[in-house]
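FIELD: query
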Amino acid sequence: MRIVLFQPDIAPNVGTILRFSACFGLPVDVVEPCGFPWDAKAMRRAAMDYIDLVDVTRHPTWLAFETARTTSHAGSRLILLTTAATTPYIDFAFRPDDLLMVGRESAGVPADVHDTADAEVLIPMQPGLRSVNVAVALAMVTGEALRQTHQFPGETP
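FIELD: result
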C-alpha cells in the first residue's frame, strides 16, 4: 500500500501524513507542484524527526507520476478519497497494493485525475458539511485499508 498526495497545499498536513506514513511503514508519493516550498528545513519542521523514516518519492507532474505508476506499480489500483464519490470507504474492498490518493486541500483533484482513478471512496458525514481535514481523512481510510489487508506493523495476512 502507498499514499499519494496530489499537489498538497499545506505543509503541516503533509508533515502529519509523513509522520503517519512513517509509523505504519507506508511509502508516500508526492505529485507536485506543492503549495509551499519543499525544502529540508520546511519538511523537518512539518514532519519533525520522522522525515528520515519515511520513503518519499516526489514526482514533478501528474504525468510523471502516472508514468511511474504504470511502470513501477503496474496492477496497483489508484483509489481516490473524494467527497464526490458514492462508495463509502467502509464498504470498499481494499487490496494490499492499492495506492490511496488525496487531493489538494483547496481544490481536490481535476477531472482528468478523477477519470484516471480506478475507484473513488468517501467518508460518510453529516449532511451539509464539506469535508474533514485531508490528513484525518487519509488516516481514517488508511486505517480501514490496513485492517482489511492485515498490513498493520507486526500483523500477518
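FIELD: remark
The domain at 2-149 is CATH 3.40.1280.10 (Alpha/beta knot).
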